[in-house]
Write a structure and sequence with these properties.
- It is a single chain.
- By secondary structure, this protein is an alpha+beta fold.
- It has one domain (14-83): Trypsin Inhibitor V, Chain A, CATH 3.30.10.
- The chain has 1 helix and 5 strands.
- It has one helix at residues 22-32, and strands at residues 11-13, 41-44, 58-64, 70-72, 78-83.
- The protein has a 3-stranded mixed sheet, with helices on one face. The protein has a two-stranded antiparallel sheet with strand order 1-4.
- It is elongated.
- The chain starts with 10 loop residues before the first strand and ends in a 7-residue tail after the last strand.
């Protein structure tokens, strides 16, 4: 009897996307993973809990996982962001 083996989980290295707008960061992850990772989340770093509706208006300050870390399609990716036009990264 042949026991099927699962394919190895594919992984990627998290790029440094700090300073990019949120839309560009999301696009970069999708391009890097060939859309295997399509969804990323984001958090307002000011603590005000604002939603990021227009992603181009938000600048990436941090990422989880951190730049250089390995991630898979099952890794939750979160970008810490502030408004591009009026705020600086903490």
């Amino acid at each position: 009897m042949v026991v099927p083996t699962s394919a190895p989980t594919r992984s990627w290295t998290m790029p440094d996307l700090t300073g990019r707008n949120l839309q560009a960061a999301q696009d970069a992850i999708q391009a890097l993973t060939n859309d295997e990772v399509f969804f990323t989340s984001s958090t307002d770093l000011t603590g005000r809990g604002r939603n990021q509706v227009l992603d181009r208006n938000w600048q990436v300050c941090t990422s989880t996982p951190a730049p250089g870390a390995t991630f898979t399609k099952d890794t939750a990716i979160n970008f810490g962001v502030v408004r591009v036009d009026t705020e600086r990264c903490p």
